[in-house]
Model the fold of this input.
Amino acid sequence: MHIWVDADACPKVIKEILYRAVERLNIPMTLVANQSLYIPKSKMIDMLTVSAGADVADVEIVLRMQAGDLVITADIPLAANVIAKGGHALNPRGTFYSEANVKEHLTIRNFMDELRGSGVMTGGPAPFSNSDRAAFANQLDRFLTSWKKTVQ
Done:
């Protein structure tokens, strides 16, 4: 398994949780972004810088990931593509996307896009909170615990 991070908008606190997890479990991780980001020196952590542009990082992640990989993203269309390719997708706020729920999330996202496109003010996401951080950490721990059991 490999962990891929849609890193441009991923909160720093989430990246720090991931840094500790991949070091502890020796899981390779690649952060994908359109600008260089700080990453700790580690044989398990890599940075892939892609050109700027809409969905460039998303396309690169889907091209490089394999079935069974975990992708950290708040981008619902990317999550849908990851799941279609047999991967796992986890939102930095702790939502685990699955075949059962990603279509619903995508429908809601598209509906909100239509509302914004027609001039309706929908507001943005709520500020990232400690409960979001805890939800992410708990979901990541559950996933990695389950993964460890299957590889042992």
